[in-house]
Amino acid sequence: MKQLYDRYDRLHNYIRISITDRCPLRCVYCMPKEGLPFFPTERVLSQDEIVQMVENFAEMGISKVRFTGGEPLLRSDVVDIVRRVHEIPGIDDISATTNGLYLPRKAAALKEAGLQRLNISLDTFDAERYKKITRGGNIKQVLKGIEVAAELGFMIKLNVVVIKGQNDDELLEFLNYTRDHNVNIRFIEFMPIGNPLKTWQKEYVGLKNVFDICDENGLDYKPIELTGNGPSENFKIKDAVGSFGLIHPISNKFCETCNRLRITPDGYLKACLYWDEEINIRQAIPDKEEFQRLIQKALDNKPLNHEMAMADADKVVNKAPTWRHMSQIGG
To answer: Is 29 labeled as ligand-binding?
Structure first.
Protein backbone atom coordinates (compact mmCIF):
# COMPACT_ATOMS: atom_id res chain seq x y z
CA MET A 1 0.00 0.00 0.00
CA LYS A 2 1.21 3.48 -0.87
CA GLN A 3 1.95 5.68 2.13
CA LEU A 4 2.01 9.46 2.29
CA TYR A 5 5.27 11.17 3.23
CA ASP A 6 6.19 14.82 2.86
CA ARG A 7 9.66 16.13 2.01
CA TYR A 8 10.59 16.12 5.71
CA ASP A 9 9.80 12.39 5.95
CA ARG A 10 6.67 12.89 8.03
CA LEU A 11 4.17 10.05 7.58
CA HIS A 12 0.57 11.22 7.10
CA ASN A 13 -2.17 8.81 8.10
CA TYR A 14 -4.89 11.19 9.30
CA ILE A 15 -7.38 13.43 7.49
CA ARG A 16 -9.74 16.03 8.89
CA ILE A 17 -12.73 16.62 6.65
CA SER A 18 -14.89 19.68 7.16
CA ILE A 19 -18.30 18.59 5.87
CA THR A 20 -19.97 21.99 6.30
CA ASP A 21 -19.04 25.59 7.01
CA ARG A 22 -22.39 26.22 8.70
CA CYS A 23 -22.78 26.59 12.47
CA PRO A 24 -25.52 28.03 14.71
CA LEU A 25 -22.85 29.65 16.93
CA ARG A 26 -20.43 32.51 16.26
CA CYS A 27 -17.54 31.69 18.58
CA VAL A 28 -15.09 34.58 18.91
CA TYR A 29 -12.10 32.51 17.74
CA CYS A 30 -13.95 30.89 14.85
CA MET A 31 -15.83 33.55 12.90
CA PRO A 32 -16.53 37.30 13.02
CA LYS A 33 -19.36 38.78 15.08
CA GLU A 34 -21.46 39.47 11.99
CA GLY A 35 -21.05 35.89 10.84
CA LEU A 36 -19.99 34.76 7.38
CA PRO A 37 -21.81 34.12 4.12
CA PHE A 38 -22.20 30.35 4.08
CA PHE A 39 -21.33 28.32 1.02
CA PRO A 40 -24.31 27.37 -1.17
CA THR A 41 -25.17 23.66 -1.03
CA GLU A 42 -23.71 22.90 -4.44
CA ARG A 43 -20.33 24.27 -3.36
CA VAL A 44 -20.09 21.80 -0.46
CA LEU A 45 -18.84 18.25 -0.97
CA SER A 46 -21.69 15.78 -1.40
CA GLN A 47 -22.01 12.57 0.59
CA ASP A 48 -20.88 10.47 -2.38
CA GLU A 49 -17.88 12.73 -2.98
CA ILE A 50 -16.84 12.48 0.67
CA VAL A 51 -17.09 8.68 0.69
CA GLN A 52 -15.21 8.27 -2.60
CA MET A 53 -12.55 10.69 -1.38
CA VAL A 54 -12.02 8.70 1.82
CA GLU A 55 -11.81 5.49 -0.23
CA ASN A 56 -9.05 7.14 -2.29
CA PHE A 57 -7.23 8.21 0.84
CA ALA A 58 -7.55 4.76 2.40
CA GLU A 59 -5.72 3.30 -0.59
CA MET A 60 -2.94 5.79 0.14
CA GLY A 61 -2.48 4.69 3.75
CA ILE A 62 -4.91 6.98 5.56
CA SER A 63 -6.52 5.12 8.47
CA LYS A 64 -7.90 7.90 10.66
CA VAL A 65 -10.72 10.30 9.79
CA ARG A 66 -12.15 13.22 11.75
CA PHE A 67 -15.29 15.05 10.66
CA THR A 68 -15.36 18.75 11.48
CA GLY A 69 -17.15 21.94 10.41
CA GLY A 70 -18.62 24.44 10.96
CA GLU A 71 -20.82 22.13 12.93
CA PRO A 72 -20.74 18.68 11.26
CA LEU A 73 -23.85 17.44 13.04
CA LEU A 74 -25.86 20.08 11.18
CA ARG A 75 -25.68 17.95 8.06
CA SER A 76 -28.83 15.85 7.74
CA ASP A 77 -26.80 13.01 6.23
CA VAL A 78 -23.98 12.98 8.80
CA VAL A 79 -25.01 9.57 10.18
CA ASP A 80 -25.01 8.07 6.69
CA ILE A 81 -21.59 9.59 5.99
CA VAL A 82 -20.16 8.07 9.15
CA ARG A 83 -21.73 4.67 8.42
CA ARG A 84 -20.38 4.52 4.87
CA VAL A 85 -16.89 5.67 5.89
CA HIS A 86 -16.89 3.10 8.70
CA GLU A 87 -17.39 0.39 6.05
CA ILE A 88 -14.30 1.42 4.06
CA PRO A 89 -11.44 -1.11 4.42
CA GLY A 90 -8.43 0.41 6.14
CA ILE A 91 -10.31 3.09 8.07
CA ASP A 92 -10.06 2.12 11.72
CA ASP A 93 -10.56 5.39 13.60
CA ILE A 94 -13.50 7.78 13.08
CA SER A 95 -14.09 10.84 15.24
CA ALA A 96 -15.84 14.20 15.11
CA THR A 97 -15.42 17.69 16.50
CA THR A 98 -18.71 19.30 17.56
CA ASN A 99 -20.20 22.09 19.61
CA GLY A 100 -22.33 19.42 21.29
CA LEU A 101 -25.70 21.05 20.71
CA TYR A 102 -27.07 18.23 18.56
CA LEU A 103 -25.66 15.29 20.50
CA PRO A 104 -28.84 14.61 22.51
CA ARG A 105 -30.63 13.89 19.21
CA LYS A 106 -27.87 12.33 17.13
CA ALA A 107 -25.29 10.75 19.43
CA ALA A 108 -26.92 7.31 19.60
CA ALA A 109 -27.28 7.01 15.83
CA LEU A 110 -23.69 8.20 15.32
CA LYS A 111 -22.41 5.64 17.81
CA GLU A 112 -24.29 2.87 16.04
CA ALA A 113 -22.94 4.07 12.67
CA GLY A 114 -19.34 3.70 13.84
CA LEU A 115 -18.28 7.01 15.36
CA GLN A 116 -15.84 6.30 18.18
CA ARG A 117 -14.61 9.56 19.65
CA LEU A 118 -15.88 13.10 20.18
CA ASN A 119 -14.15 16.41 20.70
CA ILE A 120 -16.67 18.84 22.19
CA SER A 121 -16.08 22.58 22.47
CA LEU A 122 -16.63 23.97 25.97
CA ASP A 123 -14.69 27.14 26.80
CA THR A 124 -16.39 27.97 30.10
CA PHE A 125 -18.74 26.58 32.72
CA ASP A 126 -20.41 29.96 33.19
CA ALA A 127 -23.70 30.33 31.29
CA GLU A 128 -23.35 34.05 30.62
CA ARG A 129 -19.72 33.71 29.54
CA TYR A 130 -20.65 30.86 27.26
CA LYS A 131 -23.35 32.98 25.69
CA LYS A 132 -20.82 35.79 25.17
CA ILE A 133 -18.01 33.60 23.77
CA THR A 134 -20.36 31.76 21.41
CA ARG A 135 -22.46 34.85 20.73
CA GLY A 136 -25.76 33.35 21.78
CA GLY A 137 -25.21 29.73 22.79
CA ASN A 138 -27.03 27.89 25.58
CA ILE A 139 -24.59 26.02 27.81
CA LYS A 140 -27.32 23.71 29.15
CA GLN A 141 -27.66 22.13 25.72
CA VAL A 142 -23.92 21.43 25.55
CA LEU A 143 -23.75 19.95 29.02
CA LYS A 144 -26.70 17.71 28.15
CA GLY A 145 -24.89 16.63 24.99
CA ILE A 146 -21.78 15.74 26.98
CA GLU A 147 -23.90 13.75 29.43
CA VAL A 148 -25.61 11.78 26.66
CA ALA A 149 -22.31 11.08 24.88
CA ALA A 150 -20.73 9.86 28.12
CA GLU A 151 -23.65 7.51 28.79
CA LEU A 152 -23.22 6.02 25.32
CA GLY A 153 -19.56 5.27 25.98
CA PHE A 154 -17.90 7.73 23.61
CA MET A 155 -14.30 8.69 24.27
CA ILE A 156 -14.68 12.41 25.00
CA LYS A 157 -12.28 15.32 24.82
CA LEU A 158 -13.42 18.81 25.80
CA ASN A 159 -11.73 21.58 23.81
CA VAL A 160 -11.04 24.74 25.82
CA VAL A 161 -9.56 27.64 23.84
CA VAL A 162 -7.88 29.78 26.49
CA ILE A 163 -8.36 33.52 25.94
CA LYS A 164 -7.01 36.20 28.25
CA GLY A 165 -9.75 38.04 30.10
CA GLN A 166 -12.47 35.66 28.95
CA ASN A 167 -11.88 32.27 30.53
CA ASP A 168 -8.27 32.11 31.74
CA ASP A 169 -9.50 32.42 35.34
CA GLU A 170 -11.42 29.12 35.05
CA LEU A 171 -8.49 26.79 34.49
CA LEU A 172 -8.61 25.40 38.03
CA GLU A 173 -12.32 24.65 37.65
CA PHE A 174 -11.61 22.69 34.47
CA LEU A 175 -8.77 20.82 36.14
CA ASN A 176 -11.01 19.87 39.06
CA TYR A 177 -13.69 18.71 36.60
CA THR A 178 -11.39 15.84 35.61
CA ARG A 179 -11.49 14.47 39.16
CA ASP A 180 -14.89 12.83 38.69
CA HIS A 181 -15.55 13.05 34.92
CA ASN A 182 -13.99 10.59 32.51
CA VAL A 183 -13.01 13.17 29.91
CA ASN A 184 -9.80 14.70 28.62
CA ILE A 185 -9.83 18.48 29.07
CA ARG A 186 -7.69 19.98 26.30
CA PHE A 187 -6.44 23.51 26.90
CA ILE A 188 -5.72 25.07 23.50
CA GLU A 189 -3.75 28.23 22.78
CA PHE A 190 -5.68 30.92 20.93
CA MET A 191 -4.33 31.09 17.36
CA PRO A 192 -4.08 34.12 15.04
CA ILE A 193 -6.33 32.68 12.34
CA GLY A 194 -9.11 34.92 11.08
CA ASN A 195 -8.40 37.47 13.82
CA PRO A 196 -6.63 40.87 13.63
CA LEU A 197 -3.05 40.50 14.85
CA LYS A 198 -3.36 43.23 17.50
CA THR A 199 -6.54 41.66 18.89
CA TRP A 200 -4.88 38.26 19.03
CA GLN A 201 -1.78 39.67 20.76
CA LYS A 202 -3.93 41.18 23.50
CA GLU A 203 -5.91 37.99 24.09
CA TYR A 204 -3.24 35.32 23.69
CA VAL A 205 -2.06 33.55 26.82
CA GLY A 206 0.44 30.67 27.00
CA LEU A 207 -0.33 27.45 28.80
CA LYS A 208 2.59 27.23 31.20
CA ASN A 209 0.36 28.70 33.90
CA VAL A 210 -1.69 25.49 33.88
CA PHE A 211 1.21 23.82 35.66
CA ASP A 212 1.58 26.83 37.96
CA ILE A 213 -2.08 26.50 38.95
CA CYS A 214 -1.59 22.80 39.66
CA ASP A 215 1.42 23.51 41.85
CA GLU A 216 -0.24 26.40 43.69
CA ASN A 217 -3.25 24.25 44.51
CA GLY A 218 -1.41 21.09 45.46
CA LEU A 219 -2.56 19.08 42.44
CA ASP A 220 -0.20 16.16 41.95
CA TYR A 221 -0.10 15.33 38.23
CA LYS A 222 1.94 13.10 35.95
CA PRO A 223 2.27 12.68 32.16
CA ILE A 224 0.24 9.95 30.48
CA GLU A 225 -0.32 8.52 27.00
CA LEU A 226 -3.78 8.73 25.45
CA THR A 227 -5.32 7.13 22.38
CA GLY A 228 -5.90 9.65 19.62
CA ASN A 229 -4.40 11.60 16.75
CA GLY A 230 -3.82 14.99 18.29
CA PRO A 231 -0.74 16.94 19.33
CA SER A 232 -1.84 17.22 22.94
CA GLU A 233 0.61 16.63 25.81
CA ASN A 234 -1.50 14.78 28.35
CA PHE A 235 -1.46 14.60 32.13
CA LYS A 236 -3.50 13.09 34.93
CA ILE A 237 -4.11 14.44 38.41
CA LYS A 238 -3.59 11.85 41.11
CA ASP A 239 -6.77 9.81 41.74
CA ALA A 240 -8.67 11.70 39.01
CA VAL A 241 -11.05 9.82 36.72
CA GLY A 242 -10.24 12.01 33.72
CA SER A 243 -7.16 13.82 32.44
CA PHE A 244 -6.02 17.10 30.90
CA GLY A 245 -3.91 18.02 27.93
CA LEU A 246 -2.10 21.03 26.50
CA ILE A 247 -2.09 22.03 22.85
CA HIS A 248 0.29 24.92 22.35
CA PRO A 249 0.88 25.67 18.66
CA ILE A 250 2.37 29.08 19.50
CA SER A 251 4.60 28.59 22.54
CA ASN A 252 5.69 25.04 21.81
CA LYS A 253 5.28 24.10 18.15
CA PHE A 254 4.54 20.46 17.37
CA CYS A 255 4.92 20.68 13.59
CA GLU A 256 7.72 18.12 13.46
CA THR A 257 5.19 15.40 14.29
CA CYS A 258 2.34 16.66 12.10
CA ASN A 259 0.54 13.70 10.51
CA ARG A 260 -2.59 15.35 9.16
CA LEU A 261 -4.17 16.79 6.07
CA ARG A 262 -7.28 18.99 6.05
CA ILE A 263 -10.05 19.10 3.49
CA THR A 264 -12.31 22.15 3.42
CA PRO A 265 -16.08 21.92 2.86
CA ASP A 266 -15.64 23.03 -0.75
CA GLY A 267 -13.06 20.37 -1.58
CA TYR A 268 -9.70 22.07 -1.12
CA LEU A 269 -6.81 20.29 0.55
CA LYS A 270 -4.72 22.20 3.08
CA ALA A 271 -1.48 20.53 4.08
CA CYS A 272 -0.86 23.21 6.73
CA LEU A 273 -3.57 24.85 8.80
CA TYR A 274 -2.06 28.35 8.81
CA TRP A 275 -0.88 29.12 5.31
CA ASP A 276 -3.04 30.05 2.35
CA GLU A 277 -1.74 27.34 0.04
CA GLU A 278 -4.51 24.92 -0.85
CA ILE A 279 -5.23 22.62 -3.76
CA ASN A 280 -8.63 21.91 -5.28
CA ILE A 281 -8.93 18.13 -5.20
CA ARG A 282 -12.68 17.91 -5.76
CA GLN A 283 -12.58 17.46 -9.52
CA ALA A 284 -9.96 14.73 -9.15
CA ILE A 285 -11.98 12.54 -6.75
CA PRO A 286 -13.21 10.20 -9.55
CA ASP A 287 -9.69 9.95 -11.03
CA LYS A 288 -7.53 8.09 -8.50
CA GLU A 289 -4.27 8.64 -10.39
CA GLU A 290 -4.80 12.40 -10.62
CA PHE A 291 -6.07 12.45 -7.03
CA GLN A 292 -2.87 10.80 -5.79
CA ARG A 293 -0.76 13.21 -7.81
CA LEU A 294 -2.44 16.25 -6.25
CA ILE A 295 -2.16 14.86 -2.72
CA GLN A 296 1.55 14.23 -3.17
CA LYS A 297 1.98 17.71 -4.67
CA ALA A 298 0.44 19.22 -1.54
CA LEU A 299 2.72 17.15 0.67
CA ASP A 300 5.78 18.13 -1.34
CA ASN A 301 4.93 21.78 -0.70
CA LYS A 302 4.10 21.39 2.99
CA PRO A 303 6.34 23.66 5.12
CA LEU A 304 8.44 22.42 8.01
CA ASN A 305 6.39 24.52 10.44
CA HIS A 306 3.55 27.01 10.41
CA GLU A 307 5.60 30.02 11.65
CA MET A 308 2.56 31.46 13.43
CA ALA A 309 3.32 34.60 15.41
CA MET A 310 7.05 34.59 14.75
CA ALA A 311 8.74 37.45 16.57
CA ASP A 312 10.94 38.25 13.55
CA ALA A 313 8.58 38.71 10.61
CA ASP A 314 11.50 38.88 8.18
CA LYS A 315 12.23 35.22 8.87
CA VAL A 316 8.79 34.11 7.78
CA VAL A 317 9.18 32.21 4.53
CA ASN A 318 5.56 32.37 3.44
CA LYS A 319 3.94 35.74 4.16
CA ALA A 320 0.38 34.80 3.17
CA PRO A 321 -1.66 33.31 6.03
CA THR A 322 -4.90 31.61 5.09
CA TRP A 323 -7.82 33.82 4.06
CA ARG A 324 -10.24 31.39 5.66
CA HIS A 325 -11.75 31.59 9.11
CA MET A 326 -11.59 28.50 11.30
CA SER A 327 -15.21 27.65 10.49
CA GLN A 328 -14.22 27.39 6.80
CA ILE A 329 -11.27 25.11 7.48
CA GLY A 330 -12.40 22.81 10.24
CA GLY A 331 -9.48 23.30 12.60
So the answer is: yes
